[in-house]
Write the structure tokens for this entry.
Amino acid sequence: MKEYKTLEQKRRFYDSKEWKQIREEAKQRDNYECQPCKRRGLVRIDTNEYSKSAKRKKIQLVVHHIQELEDHPTLALEIDNLETVCVDCHNKEHGREFERNVNKWEMDEKW
Ligand SMILES: [Zn+2]
Ligand SMILES: [Zn+2]
């Protein structure tokens, strides 16, 4: 069974063809909309609008593993375990862990 515990293992996973393909499928399935925002009646879609102050696109979408990759490696490429979220929601999804270690998810799932 594959493991995604170290940064190197994760990096390799997020760099894989398989991940890039399923990530696109997940975004398409979700119409390139943030699902948690949508559930709250907001629509945040990925745009190419560029925010000069943030030096990045205004809304960035991340394909998030509902069951953590690290704890559920068998669900790594299960589309049912994937959800399109905006960066704001992604930070919330990871909740306290994110606050405790700000850099932990910085690179996660954006590759
Ligand atoms: Zn959102
Ligand atoms: Zn995530």
Remarks:
- The pocket of zinc ion (ligand 1) is lined by residues 34, 36-37, 44, 85-86, 88-89 (CB under 6 Å).
- The chain has one domain: 7-100.
- The CA atoms of residues 15 and 111 lie 6 Å apart.
